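Archive transcription. Copying these from loose printouts into the bound notebook so they stop getting lost. Printout 1 of 2:
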Amino acid sequence: MEALYSKTFEISPDATDRFDRLKASYLLRYLQEVAGDHSALLGTDRAQLIRRGLFWAVLRHRVQITRLPHAGEHIRVETWPMPTTRTAYPRSTIAYDEAGNEVFRCISLWVLMDEKTRAMVLPGKSGVEVSGMLRGCELTVPGSMMPREMQEVTTRTVRYTDLDVNGHMNNCRYLDWVDDLLPSAFHEHHTIREFALCYLSEIREGETLDLHWELSEGAVLSVEAVRSENAEASGHSRVFSAKLELQSGVL
């Protein structure tokens, strides 16, 4: 089976924001869809893994954006697995517009989870083998983001439409929550140049998060999401961290 897989998408109106630019959350949806399709061809999709009591979960994303496509455009999203590490399965992705110009690229770090215990299963103990390759154009995996004090706090509760098939909040929805921290007046004149997301623990329906955040003078949005209730008792107060580098003007 080919280690390289590609799929073409038409950008639908619901995939764009009010300024007709591809939403960051939908960008992640495309990444997730091509990864899932490729996994099916490789025999490591959800249907195969669930028989072993496993499922895929993403730990980190790093995305660099050259341009955000508009509704009606077609993009070709190309993906391939990188060599498996001791703990995870990295995957690289690049998207091109109809003229062959790059619009964004990404590296994602995937792990296998035990369906019952929700604990991570190391590749060497999972029985799941993925042959990876390096093409010389891969991004580096983002490092961990250390928690720090931030002045702004916004509270959100996980609802039904935030959930995915694994019963926890969909990783794409985190970016919608992050985008909602800033008003339309800001988004109109700023676009995302690069972002990194670190997923630290899963969160389920009905749980409430405090999003601690700040926007620096250099247009860098930093977010630290923690559980609002029983955080210390659970031992998993941190849920996700995000860093978005924005720039004025339209990409």
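Printout 2 of 2:
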Amino acid sequence: NAYYEWCKKNNFISKLLADRKSQQEAAEAGKSQSTLDAAVIPLEKRTPYSQHRMNEAIWTFIVDTNQALSVIERPSFRNMIDVVSSAKEVITLPDHKVTRAGIMRMFFKRMGQLKKLFAVSSML
């Protein structure tokens, strides 16, 4: 057919009804919804909270780190537990290098505050 030859020669897509239907069917057959599996980061499985597990974790912490029993009454320990308990996602604990750097930053910040506090004017 001259029409099809002209379409091929001019790189033109046929607009005849039968051709459009077959083009649409071919497009529908090639369609498939892709999944996000490659982009999804699996979360760690969380164990449900129980008071018994919390108590055992505290006792294990005290024994493993040779802490005084009174450590659980310290405001800083209780604050840490409050911060952790309000998390909605899995918590990532810092390693010893990050912890050391954080403690050093806190130390130097506190030293700067103390220097300002104890600064004496040379003009009396």
